[in-house]
Design goal:
By secondary structure, the protein is α/β, with parallel strands linked by helices. It is built from 10 helices and 10 strands. The chain has a 10-stranded mixed sheet with strand order 3-2-1-4-5-10-9-6-7-8, with helices on both faces. α1 packs across α2 and α9 (236-243) crosses α10. The longest helix is centred in the first third of the chain and has 22 residues, at 59-80. The N and C termini lie close together (8 Å).
């Protein structure tokens, strides 16, 4: 996360039409742990949109609802963390690019989730989680479920596949585990191919070696983080979701950027957004 060291804010998207307390709680607690500022953001349509039947601008009510949500959210955060540094922004425009632009300066971007099915996701005008996650230039945290703080010791899960983005995910996962006093389960899932050219044990040994090399040196940097290595056999989404069932969060890397539509997203990340029962943190490479 060295490239983000100068970024001093965590940005959280607020949807006035839905309960924003779960993502806001995650974001405000994270800002408090890291000593960062918190920015609450509501995106509303541009003011030049068509007028309603009664002649008033369509966005007037949305602006007012947005302002009220920002005010209520600010009060809620300051009750939770007195002295918190809170800023707000009511921005005009289509939510995906409007919020996505903030990822250039943010340390993290936090969003709530409605747990839409894949079909509903593509046809819902209010679906912003997938395209923003695909396009963001900083880690994105999707909070559709609360952290599981009853598990002892608390732990996080990080998925490792040897890619540059999974290395970035590992760096953030260690950072998070250290901040929270949590253990870290580093998981490299091996999915058997249709045609296996080598012995299964050879393939598993290669996965174990990759996992060991990827995590090498991190325990020296974070000596208080208890690290475990796991190489389960199965589908990555299913195995990671099951491992994270009682986790504080699951952390995965995200390869590439979303295209024009912003809907292109790796199958593992996309699957976890639907399957995981804890916050999902996606980290872009570099």
């Amino acid at each position: 996360m060295r490239a983000a060291d100068g970024r001093r804010e965590i940005v959280v998207g607020i949807d006035p039409a839905r309960d924003w307390r779960l993502p806001l709680a995650w974001a405000s607690d994270e800002a408090h742990r890291r000593g960062l500022g918190l920015r609450l953001v509501v995106a509303v349509p541009s003011s030049h949109q068509k007028r309603q039947v009664n002649g008033t601008p369509r966005t007037t009510a949305l602006h007012q609802a947005g302002l009220e949500a920002l005010a209520a959210g600010t009060d809620w955060v300051r009750e939770r963390h007195p002295g918190a540094e809170v800023a707000t922004a009511l921005i005009e425009g289509i939510p995906v690019p409007a919020i996505g632009r903030l990822s250039h300066q943010a340390r993290m971007l936090v969003l709530g989730s409605r747990h839409l099915s894949r079909t509903a996701e593509y046809f819902s005008a209010g679906s912003t989680v997938v395209p923003i996650t695909a396009q963001a230039h900083c880690p994105v945290v999707v909070v559709g479920n609360p952290e599981h703080i009853t598990q002892r010791p608390p732990y996080l899960v990080v998925g490792i596949d040897g890619s540059e983005s999974s290395k970035a995910a590992l760096a953030l996962a260690f950072e998070e585990a250290d901040l929270r006093g949590a253990a870290l389960r580093a998981i490299a899932v091996w999915q058997p191919p249709v045609f296996l050219l080598h012995d299964e044990e050879v393939a598993l040994q290669a996965q174990r070696r990759m996992l060991s090399e990827a995590t090498s040196g991190w325990s020296q940097k974070y000596p208080d983080v208890v690290l475990s290595h796991e190489v389960p056999i199965g589908h990555p989404v299913q195995e990671l979701a099951e491992a994270a069932e009682h986790a504080l969060a699951v952390v995965v890397g995200r390869r590439g950027r979303g295209g024009y539509s912003g809907m292109r997203l790796g199958s593992v990340v996309h699957g976890l957004l639907h399957r995981a029962f804890c916050p999902v943190i996606t980290v872009p490479a570099g």
